[in-house]
Amino acid sequence: MTVFNLAIELAYWQQTVIRSVLGLVAVLLPAGTLVYLYLFKMMSFMQSRLGPMEAGPYGSLQLLAEVGKFLQKEDLFPRDADRVVFKAAPFVVLASTFLLVLVLPAGPDAWFINIDTGVFLALAVSSISVIGILMAGWGSASKYSLIGGLRAAGQLVAYELPLVLAVMGVVIQAGTLNVQEIVLAQANGEIFGWGGIGNPFIITQFLGFMIFLVAIQAELTQPPFDMPVAESEIVTGYLTEYTGMRFLLFFIGEFATAGIFSALAATFFLGGWYIPGLDPTDNLFNLIGPLVLVGKMLLVSFLIFWFRFTYPRFREDQLQQLAWKVLVPLSLVNIVATGVLKVIF
Amino acid sequence: MNSEASTQQLSYIANQASDARVNIELETEGMTLNLGPQHPATHGTLRIIVRLDGEQVVSAEPVMGYMHRGYEKLTEVRTYPQVTTLVNRIDWLGSFANEVPFILAAERLMEVEAPARAQWIRTALFELSRIANVVLFLGDMAVQLGATTPVFYAFRDREFVLNQIESVTGGRFHPNFDRIGGIKDDLPKGWIQETKDVLVRIHSFCEEMEDLVVGNEIFQTRTRGIGIIPADTGLAYGLSGANIRSSGVDWDLRRDGGVGLIHDQLDWKVWTHPDGDSFARYWVRLQEVRESCKMVGQILDGIPSGPIMAKVPRIIKVPPGEAYVETENPLGVMGYYIVSKGDLVPYRVKIRSASFNNVSITPWVLKGVYVPDVISILASLYFILGDIDR
Predict the structure, then answer these.
(1) pLDDT tens-digit readout, B295-305
(2) Distance from CA of A268 to the nearest CA of B (A)
(3) Which of A6, A281, B72, B106 has the greatest count of CB atoms below 10 A from its CB?
(4) Which residue of A lies nearest to B148 if distances are taken between CA atoms?
(5) Best CATH choice for the domain B71-360 from the list 2.40.128.20, 3.30.420.40, 1.10.645.10, 3.40.50.2000
C-alpha cells in the first residue's frame, strides 16, 4: 500500500502495522460515529427526547462508558452451550466486517487492496457473517436463539441475491469489477456529453440503488427487517444469551457493517471518494478522499437509520415474499435494461 | 359457532393433518416454547406455553396467577373508603376508572346518589383515565410490532393527561379520589382551560398515530386479517370493550348500561369495525380516544355548579344487601359484585375484570398463527396484568 504518495519505501512489517491500524480505524470509526450520531442522538431527537447528555459534552463520551460497562461484565455461558462455537461466533461475524472493509478505496492511492474482482470479494465475504450468526444461534442452546439464528440465516441468504443483482447493474455500466475503477468510471463519466459532475451511477441506476438500500437494510437485520433480533417476539434472537465482551463484538460488528455497507453504496452509486470539480488523479484526493467517503457514508446511513427508527417489522414470510417476488424480478429487469442501454449507447 | 368460524376450524384441522403426515415423513418434532412469565412482550408476568411446529403455533395455553395479589380477599378487611386504595391498582394505567364501579355499587346499596357536579367530574376523570390508558396502547402496539418511535410519543402526550388527573386528585397513578356520595375535592382553579389545551394535544397525537401507524403499509400487512375473532366466538368467550366492538358488536355500557355516570347526556358515538382482526382492534381504540376527547370537551363546557358531596354519614356502614354494577372501563367491562352484611367492611367482593376474559380467548385465537403474530394478537387484545390477576 502506498500511503499518500509519501515517496518513501516502507518495509513489509511497517506496511503491515500501518495496514492493521488503518483497518481498525476504518472499522471502529464508522461504528462509533454511527452509534453516537444516529443511534444515540438522531433516534432520541426523533423520539422527542434528548438521549445521553451526561458523559462528556452532549453525551459524546457515552460510547466509551458503554464499552467500559460491557468490558466489566462477567463472561457467561448457558449451561448446555456448545462453548467453542459460542465463543467463536462473534469473531466470525466481526471477521466478515474486517474483510469487507478491505475493498473500499478512499482515494486514488489510498486503498487496502486493489484487485480486479473487488466487487466479487466484497459480496462474497459479506455472507460469512451468516455462518457466525448461525453458530451463535445454535451454540447458545436456547430456543429463542435458535429461532433467531434460523430466521437470520433464511433472511440473509434471501437478500444476498437482490444485493448482488443490484450491484450487477453498476458493474455492467462501469464495465469492471474493480471497485477503484468503478469510482473512476463515475468520476470520468459524462451525462450526455456533459462531464460537469461526472456520472454518479445513482442517476442511471436509481432502481439498483433503492434495491441495494433495501437489501443492506435486511442484511444488517435492522427494522423493518429485524425479525432475527425481534426483541418483542424472541427476546433478542441469536444475541439473547450473549453478554459482556462478546455482545460488544456483535454490537460493533453490526454498526461497523452498517457503516461499511453504506460506504459501499456510496462507492457504487454516489461516486465514492470523488467530488466533482477536481481532477480524480489529484494527489489531494488521498487526503480529502477518506473524508468525502465518510461524508457520503453518513448520508446513506442516515437513510438506513431513518427507516430503522420509523417502520414496524415485517413477518418472516412477508419478508421472503418481498425478496423473491419483488426485489429479485425488479433487479433482473434492471440488469436487462442496463445491458440493453449499454449496448445502444 | 357460525359457519365462518367452523370453516376456519375445519381448515385448521386439515392443515394439521397434512402437516402431521409431512412430519412423519420428515421425522420432525414440535417444540414447546415458554413465552413468559418474563418476556418483553407480555408486559408483566403472563406466561403462555406455546407448542410450535416450526414457527407455527399448534396450541397455546395462557398461565395466569403470577401477579395475584388477592384483592378480593383483602377487601373483606378494609372499610369501604379504604377499598378504593386497593382497587385502583387493578388496571394501573387507567386507575381512576377502577374506583368508579365499586363506588357506584356501594352507592346503590346505601341508596345515595352523588350530586350532579360530582357525577360530571367523575365522568370527566373516567374518560381522562381512559385516554391515559388507551393512548399508551396506541404506542405500545406499534412497539410490539417493532416500531420503536410511537411509544415515545405516547408517553410524551400521556404525561399531560396524567398531569391533569394529578392536579385534581393529587395522584398520578393511584388517585384514590372517588368517594361514596361524591368526590373528594372540587376542581382546582384554571383546570378547565388547561384540560382543553391537553385535549388539543391528544387530538393531534391521534392524527399522528393515524399517519405513523395506521397508515403504515407494513403495519397493515402485519395486522389485517390476523387474529380474526368472529362476533359470536368473542361473545362466547366473554370478550368486552373495544375487543368485541371491533368484531362488529355494537355494545357499549356507557351508552347501554345506564349507571351513575352522565354519558347519556353527551353527544358521542360508539365505533365498531366489521373485521374483528388486529387492525380493527387498533382502529376502534384510536377512534375511542377521539370520542373520549370529544366527551371531556363537552363535559368541560357544560359542567354544572353545586355541591360535590351528598349527605353521607361520617362512618360509612353499608346496609345489608347485594349489588352488582359494571361499567365500560378502558380495557372492557369491569364489574363489582358486593355482598354486605351491614358492617363497616364488605362481606364479599367479586371483581369482574375485563382482561381476564380477554386473555381467555388466546388458546382459540392463537391456533395456527405464526410466532410474530402471537405477539401482535396479544398486543391487540390489550391486557394489563393487574387486570388479569387482581
Answers:
(1) 899 999 888 88
(2) 29
(3) B106
(4) A309
(5) 1.10.645.10
